[in-house]
Amino acid sequence: MAVTQFNPTCQKTHFHSSQLSFLSRTLPRQRHCSFPAIRRTQHARISCSVAPNEVQVPAVKAQDPKSKPDCYGVFCLTYDLRAEEETRSWKKLINIAVSGAAGMIANHLLFKIASGEVFGPDQPVALKLLGSQRSIQALEGVAMELEDSLFPLLREVSIGIDPYEVFQDAEWALLIGAKPRGPGMERAGLLDINGQIYAEQGKALNAVASRNVKVIVVGNPCNTNALICLKNAPNIPAKNFHALTRLDENRAKCQLALKAGVFYDKVSNVTIWGNHSTTQVPDFLNARIDGFPVKEVVRDHKWLEEEFTEKVQKRGGVLIQKWGRSSAASTSVSIVDAIRSLITPTPEGDWFSSGVYSDGNPYGIAEGIVFSMPCRSKGDGDYELVKDVIFDDYLRKRIAKTEAELLAEKRCVAHLTGEGIAVCDLPGDTMLPGEM
Amino acid sequence: MAVTQFNPTCQKTHFHSSQLSFLSRTLPRQRHCSFPAIRRTQHARISCSVAPNEVQVPAVKAQDPKSKPDCYGVFCLTYDLRAEEETRSWKKLINIAVSGAAGMIANHLLFKIASGEVFGPDQPVALKLLGSQRSIQALEGVAMELEDSLFPLLREVSIGIDPYEVFQDAEWALLIGAKPRGPGMERAGLLDINGQIYAEQGKALNAVASRNVKVIVVGNPCNTNALICLKNAPNIPAKNFHALTRLDENRAKCQLALKAGVFYDKVSNVTIWGNHSTTQVPDFLNARIDGFPVKEVVRDHKWLEEEFTEKVQKRGGVLIQKWGRSSAASTSVSIVDAIRSLITPTPEGDWFSSGVYSDGNPYGIAEGIVFSMPCRSKGDGDYELVKDVIFDDYLRKRIAKTEAELLAEKRCVAHLTGEGIAVCDLPGDTMLPGEM
Predict the structure, then answer these.
(1) Looking at the structure, do residues B176 and B303 belong to the same domain, yes or no?
(2) Residue A136 in contact with residue A161, Cβ under 8 Å?
(3) Which domain holds residue A269?
(4) Which PANTHER family match (chains A, B) (predicted)?
(5) What is the mean pLDDT of residues A109-113?
(6) Which chain B residue has the Cα nearest residue A332?
(7) Region class of A261: left (phi > 0), else alpha (psi between -120 and 50), else beta
(8) Nearest Cα to A337, choosing from B152, B75, B333, B79?
(9) Among A143, A189, B105, B433, which one has the highest count of C-beta atoms within 10 angstroms of its own C-beta?
(10) Which residues, 6 or more positions from A296, have their beta carbon under 8 angstroms from its beta carbon?
(11) In a domain, B54, yes or no
(12) Shortest CA gap A255–chain B (Å)
């Protein structure tokens, strides 16, 4: 058991925005869009796939260029949604920030968002891509592919490495970016290195994002990253922060369907309790198949108790063996599911899992951590916790274990949440197979 | 200039189905779904992520298992679309075969199809994934990720390496798979190696696919691969075969938008003429911006004549430099665009580009080749060529060049189209940058 102490002041030694801004200035210069782009902060960094002197005056009536945010390529160009029959009735543009935007999960997710699959066919979107110093060229490649896709709903794309710039006015922040675990690195080390990123991003959200921004943390360890993020964003409701456990829920549904011999659309009411780690609890007590309790349909209770959870958790590892890559496509589908669960009403009688702030939960789970629990939404971006769930000793015992782990993780990042000196007494390696 | 002769009989020396089947038998055995799967041909190869003895009797009323095709994992399980309110009104399931299914383009495309983004929210789909001996494990990984995504519309997934099995009853065949060009390989060599694959796949489509299957060839050299494919499928209308030039069209629209300083939704009527190679002709004479001829809006005609085409063609190469990978995401978007252009009515006054069989074309282009031309569709899967296009000497001259190239490619694959002995007198390297 590793015990490590971190100094509360060390959180600023990495990834501070002014430092990234300095790095940005040492990069080879990019061509800039000089015509509609207004630099809104000193950290602004925009680039363009056409030089200003190649661009003619717009042939069609355009919006006031001063209202245009920083931009990439064709997305620097002005447009007027009110001028066309088919776009006049569209909703107001929303800003969606994505970190780790040059990675494979984002490479699936961004194109789903841009196509209208996530937010609907009348919701224009602006994508704000956050990458790292190393990935800035790749981010430009992503932006170029978005240009070449001609998505009608995708109206603005900007790229950058400074969260204080990229998160400006974000209404959604999908935080995928995280450092992978290096050789020999313990979970405490990973918590610290990624925790610093998420502390910085929480501060940036607090400073510049929409006051009602919804945040979904995907980068691991996602529960505690989400906790760090929300603690560094005191002006944003803690309820707005989510840690992604939806892929675990989806995998659990698939395994229950396979075991019961039914198609997966018959499986409902599956909760993932707790941490996105090997202590997580896929709940077969409350889950239903075709409306019946799982334990009535799957009579092999030994399988439920001894194999089911392992099958769910080993899925990522098996996939890496088969496919040679981690599950970018299905992870991005589960992010879409998580977003859509918040913006569409939850079907009657069902619920979805999300890692949310535990304050005020009705289950007796410790407060002050980000814990995956069953949620319902009216489709307004908000959610409420489901009250009518049952517990037995077996479920309680497992929930207590994942709760203990999350409390230990919390102690381990106290220096990043403003709660004093960190003390790391984490149990063994609980990273899920196939994840870094 | 390379002159190579191929023996007409050499087409069967690679990739013959019986050979693949033999290879299949030498593979480590997979677990098989014994319960609903019926082996319909001797080449059937199915695998399952749950062992039969782990599966209980379905708890819900199921379809007759004998009607179930070969399957993967959870997709082996039965379902009844008539039993539920929300699925009762759905259309009849369609079979969509995808070759190169373990590759990156397919990894984007399959999830788009499964989500309903391509064929609509009431169209259930069966995905039939064709891979190679080498990629069979990766195919299982793709199928696992599709399982974990719980797409309501995705009802069946099967994987295999024998096109005679995988193409069974296919209503769409999206042919992405192709061998990359090896070091020092000339275009004639690439035409031969990939032509043999496409000859085999044409024969398989002819033998087992739906009589009205729509085929979109993406694997390069896609025009001549499509020609080989259709010549080997005499019982399927030649009109049903397409070579993908939609990414070129999309890139051309984006570059015209950038140059004109307008958003890309203002650009219409863009034709890519001819081959998907550097002889292709992005047509700025007929293209329109906000309804006006491009040449009236972009007054820099020197740019149109001397830089525009190169900008479109170099896009893939620039992307590889930036991003380190080829344009899988935007290619898959353009395949979606190509499909949707055939199943939704073309907007009034506009058209789309597709490489189609040139017999009976109204432009005076040589018959018997697959040539990209402007098309319109009523949304029934079929298309007609657009008549009201104009030509000038400049456009005619460039079209003649790409036509000559396609006729040379045709002579070079005569051994694969049943037209005698191949003679390869291809001009220099005309592969597009960033493509293999």
Answers:
(1) no
(2) yes
(3) 246-423
(4) MALATE DEHYDROGENASE
(5) 98
(6) B149
(7) left
(8) B152
(9) A143
(10) none
(11) yes
(12) 8
Lookup: tokens for A132:
């790292």
In a domain, B428, yes or no: no
Same domain, A261 and A227: no
CB A61 within 8 A of CB A84: no
**CA–CA distance, A281 with A336 (Å, rounded to integer):** 22
Least Cα separation, residue B321 to chain A (angstroms): 8
If phi > 0 it is left, if psi is from -120 to 50 it is alpha, else beta; for residue B254 that is alpha
Does the distance separating the beta carbons of B59 and A290 come in below 8 Å?
yes
Q: What is the C-alpha separation between A316 and A330, in angstroms, rounded?
A: 10
Q: How far is B413 from chain A (nearest CA, A)?
A: 32
Q: What pLDDT was estimated at residue B50? A: 40
If you measure CA to CA, which chain B residue comes closest to A106? B329
Is residue A334 in a domain? Answer: yes
Chain A: residue nearest B149 by CA?
A330
Task: Give me the CATH number covering residue A125.
Answer: 3.40.50.720
Cα separation, B249 vs B334, in Å, equals 9
* Length of chain A counted residue by residue: 436
Give me the residue label for tokens 């491009």: B294
Contacts of B390 (CB under 8 A, 6+ apart): B285, B286
Q: What is the CATH number of the domain that holds B326?
A: 3.90.110.10
User: Residues A254, A225: one domain?
Assistant: no
Q: B130 near B95, Cβ under 8 Å?
A: no
Q: Chain-wide mean pLDDT for chain A?
A: 86
CB atoms within 10 A of CB B82: 10
The whole-number pLDDT of residue B337 equals: 98
- Which of B216, B243, B270 is where one domain is finished? B243
A243, A266, A285 — which closes off a domain? A243
Q: Look at B111 and A333 and tell me if their CB atoms are within 8 Å.
A: yes
Calculate how close chain A gets to B347, using CA atoms only, in Å.
Answer: 12
Q: Does the annotation mark A276 as catalytic?
A: yes
Between chains, do B137 and A322 touch, taking CB under 8 Å as contact? yes
Question: B319 and A137: CB-CB below 8 Å?
Answer: no
Tens digits of per-residue pLDDT, A265-321? 999 999 999 999 999 999 999 999 999 999 999 999 999 999 999 999 999 889 988
Q: Which of A78, A264, A322 lies nearest to residue B140, judging by beta carbons?
A: A322
Among all residues of chain A, which has the CA nearest to that of B54?
A: A259
Range in A47-61, A354-368, B210-224, B358-372 the model is least confident about: A47-61
The span from the CA of B69 to the CA of B126, in Å, is: 10
Task: Give the H or E element holding residue A174.
Answer: strand A172-175
pLDDT at A29 over 50: no
Predicted ipTM? 0.86
Bridge partners (DSSP) listed for residue A117: none
Per the structure, how many domains does chain B have? 2
Work out the pLDDT band at A410, boundaries 50, 70, 90: very high
CB pairs under 8 A between A and B: 216
Same domain, A181 and A261: no
